[in-house]
Amino acid sequence: MFDPLADIDRALADRAGWTWFDDHLRYTCAVLDLLRRDRLTALPVKSTRIRIDPGEVCIAEGQAQWYFWRAPGDGTWTPRTIYAAGNAAFVMAAQVGNALANHIRRQQAEAGTRPRWIGEPAGSIMVSDRRIHLTNPDRAVPIAWSALETIDLTAPDRVVARYQDRGGAFHLLQVHSPWAALIFVIAAHLHFPNHPLLLSGNWLPPGFEDKCHLAGKSCPPVRTR
Q: Is 219 helix (H, G, I), strand (E, B) or coil?
């Protein structure tokens, strides 16, 4: 029986170019295989500092950095007025300098209205069968899988999702974590079964199964159902 937690032969792994990220991918393959066979409870209990609900299964926990797509400002700014005394040349120079400074302030305010990825302080992520839970020293962001409207794996360690919060507002979120692929496959399995990355199996790097074999371990056939 496939055991996702069994250690690999590290000597073979080194020759195959195995990395810690491959450990995360292989574990993700195991989780998807168990989900498809409705046997997720067969996973050994995972430790977490996040309070979980009765019956909820913690699947993984680790470091994460996340970003929200939003504008850092609302476009407001306050013009500065100066009063200069002296000869005409001095007063004119002071007024021109102030006008230039106000122009720069206005440009900065306008630039602040353009959305961009705004990073949150680094923290951790807990992944369960019901949600992801982002935590840093400033805030906690629990997101139920059912709240997701879209999701995509944009890089091996990066997932982008749009979700609706409890107040009804929509947010675009980008999470950088070694568990990005795990987040993607759980979400896709539960709510996006026709996602092209899931159907094609291309969320896994090419040749990953062969790499597992070279490292002395099997990998469940998760590229196809």
A: coil
| Structure tokens belonging to residue 116 | 């961009």
Where is 95: in which H helix or E strand?
helix 88-111
8 Å CB contact between 186 and 198: no
Q: Which helix (H) or strand (E) holds 212?
A: helix 208-214
Q: How far is CA 104 from CA 30, 78, 136, 196, in A?
A: 55, 12, 34, 46
pLDDT mean by block of 10 residues, the chain; 225 residues: 52 76 93 94 90 95 95 67 66 68 69 82 97 96 97 97 94 97 98 95 93 85 79
**pLDDT score at 5:** 45
What are the φ/ψ torsions at residue 213 (nearest 5 degrees)? Answer: -60, -45
Cα dihedral 13, 18, 20, 21 sign: negative
- Cβ neighbors of 153 (< 8 A, separation 6 or more) are 159, 180, 181, 184, 197, 203
The H or E element spanning position 210 is: helix 208-214
Q: What is the pTM of this model?
A: 0.80
